[in-house]
Sequence to fold (214 residues):
Amino acid sequence: MLIRPYEKPDRAAVRELACATADCGKPLDWLIPDSVFLADILTRYYTDLEPESSLVADADGRVAGYLNGCRDTSLWRVRMARRILPAAVAMALWRGLAWRPEIRRLLRLNWREYSWHCHGGAPRLEAYPAHLHVNVAAGARGGGLGARLVERFLDDLRLAGVPGVRASVRADNKPGLDFFRRLGFEEAARIPGLRVREDEKWTSVILARRVAGA
Ligand SMILES: CC(C)(COP(=O)(O)OP(=O)(O)OC[C@H]1O[C@@H](n2cnc3c(N)ncnc32)[C@H](O)[C@@H]1OP(=O)(O)O)[C@@H](O)C(=O)NCCC(=O)NCCS
Fold:
């Protein structure tokens, strides 16, 4: 299994895997049935605006996992506000999704996390400017791929002199939390939950890690 930089031809596979793993490693189609809209929200910034910071795990030409990275979250927030979120709202209107309560909730969830990053939530952006999302296909988990993707990203950050990185995991995703803790990330903050259905609230845990030697 090869860990290599993301390339343009990987785009469709990364989008597909993002949709297949969006609900703590399972599909999110019960909440967001429109996969084009969901993939745009989850991955378009990374694949289209900062492709040089993403990685894939390549199993003989098949994408078995990916890491979507961003080296400078302050640049991300400007580009999200100007390019990604307006396009997502326009798409929701254009595709007739905007009236669906679950789509509005997802946009609110993204907006809440976006605003949190913009308004100086701990950890400080200057100390932890980078962030990442990592997902491995269901059949390929537990074999070290996720750890290799994150370690390679940390190496890239070290070379680029980026001092710290953050990740966001849902509070009910215990395997995801264990994974990041095992890799030296520590909990830095919680973004209060948003109700996605009557009996379910999602809270985001923000984890952070210094990049040694950066
Ligand atoms: C979380 C995820 C990226 C981990 O990738 P992976 O390739 O399965 O993990 P690895 O095999 O590299 O595991 C590295 C370490 O993380 C920990 N870990 C991994 N999966 C775990 C699990 N299910 N439960 C508890 N600890 C786990 C282990 O300590 C492991 O080290 P060890 O094998 O030496 O004990 C992957 O399981 C996944 O995509 N999950 C669904 C989506 C998700 O939750 N993404 C992360 C949040 S955005």
User: Anything to note?
Assistant: Residues 2-210 form a domain with the Aminopeptidase fold (CATH 3.40.630.30). Residues 21, 24-25, 133-136, 141-147, 169, 173, 175-176, 178-179, 182 surround coenzyme A (CB under 6 Å). The longest helix spans residues 73-94.
